[in-house]
Write a structure and sequence with these properties.
Layout: E1 2-9, H1 13-21, H2 26-29, E2 33-41, E3 45-54, E4 57-68, E5 72-79, E6 82-95, E7 98-109, H3 112-138
Antiparallel strand pairs: 1-7, 2-3, 3-4, 4-5, 5-6, 6-7
Length: 169
């Protein structure tokens, strides 16, 4: 099955790339990811073990992903219950604070039983992955023009209520 999704995101390409690349945080916002561990990470590669557990489906997988921050990350299966699992994330800066993200994933489970049991669940996961990252990015502070995260504005305190004993002004 091939999934292709794209979105315009009100965050910098750097900020969205860093979110996508940080697999160790997936369990915080991807409900199907019950565990994630970075095996290896450097400037050109990230490898991670992921545990998928959702709607009765449970399996582990490892990906090894060449990357070029902030515009590209390939997805290659190193081990897991797939015959085929290849994809990529492409990010294009539109402005210093906005980008376009395109995601492609070509996958097929390695057995008919796994396809029958897990196929519909994994199809839904793959189909909604871009939306999940866009929603997560919306919860983060926007980037400033220099690429650093802008501080979140603090809410102004509410004025104190008028005192009942104070004379009207």
């Amino acid at each position: 099955m091939i999934v292709r999704r794209s979105a315009l995101v009100d965050r910098s390409a750097e900020q969205l790339f860093d979110l996508i690349e940080a697999a160790e945080h997936y369990p915080k916002f991807l409900p199907w990811c019950s565990g994630a561990h970075i095996v290896e990470r450097d400037d050109t590669l990230v490898s991670a073990d992921l545990r998928v557990r959702w709607a009765g489906v449970d399996f582990a997988m490892r990906t090894r992903n060449p990357k070029r921050r902030p515009e590209y990350m390939a997805i290659h299966l190193e081990r897991g219950p797939f015959r085929r699992f290849e994809g990529e994330w492409l990010l294009s800066a539109l402005t210093p604070q906005a980008c376009k993200v395109a995601f492609t994933l070509d996958w097929e489970f390695d057995s008919a039983v796994m396809t029958r049991v897990a196929g519909p669940v994994f199809a839904r996961i793959a189909d909604t992955l871009v939306d999940a990252f866009v929603q997560r990015a919306a919860t983060l502070a926007p980037s400033s023009a220099d690429g650093a995260a802008a501080p979140s504005p603090l809410p102004l305190p509410a004025p104190p209520p008028p005192s009942p004993s104070s004379p009207p002004a």
